[in-house]
Amino acid sequence: MEDSRFTEEKYRVNRAITAAQVRLIDQDGNPVGIVGIKEAMSMASEAALDLVEIAAQAVPPVCKIIDYGKLKYELQKKKSEAKKKQKIIEIKEVKLTPSIGDHDYKVKLTNINKFIEDGNKVKVTLRFRGREFAHKEIGEKLLQRLINDVKEIAKCENAPQLEGKQMMMMISPQITK
């Protein structure tokens, strides 16, 4: 009878409750006190509702007279609301070369700014080809220029690092309070 989507919130309902006595809360939220399980079940059936064990670890367990279907619906609704509010941060990648033209650099910078404003991290990859590798300082200057151009909206998470024939760094949005 229990839906498999609610495996995290396992509530014992009606006859599944094994305790002899329970601390009962009625449908209005008022505490009734400690009563026998049979009396609690009869009170729930009189109200045409379910007896749900909400705190199994308590001694005696706490049970409430509520509509179990409504409880499951509200839990599902809370779960979906939490999922909606969750922000997934993506890592975008921008590739450069040391001999990049001024206009191309501005286009890449515009893309980086757009990614940062959307709340994403940006991985900047500077690829050296052929003899460009002999002049790593040109690549370092280019990445330093990029860091200076985005320092108002972003921070450099990982400083430029040389890995093989590529120099990489990670830029993330600044946290504003």
Main sheet makeup: 5 strands, mixed
Radius of gyration, in Å, reads: 30 Å
Give average pLDDT, whole number: 86
Give the neighbour order of strands across the main sheet: 1-4-5-2-3
Silhouette: rod-shaped
Strand content: 25-35%
Count of alpha and pi helical runs: 4
Low-confidence stretches: 1-8
Oligomer: single chain
- Gap from first CA to last CA: 48 Å
Range of helix content: 25-40%
| Class per helix and strand makeup | alpha+beta
According to DSSP, the number of beta strands is 9
Give the ordered list of helices and strands: EEEHEEHEHEHEE
Note down, in words, how this protein is organized.
This protein has 177 residues and is α+β, with helices and mostly antiparallel strands. The chain has 4 helices and 9 strands, in the order E-E-E-H-E-E-H-E-H-E-H-E-E. It has helices spanning 37-46, 68-85, 102-117, 136-150; strands at residues 12-13, 21-25, 31-36, 50-55, 62-66, 91-96, 121-127, 154-163, 166-173. It has a 5-stranded mixed beta sheet. The longest helix is centred in the middle third of the chain and has 18 residues, at 68-85. The model is unreliable at 1-8 (pLDDT under 50).
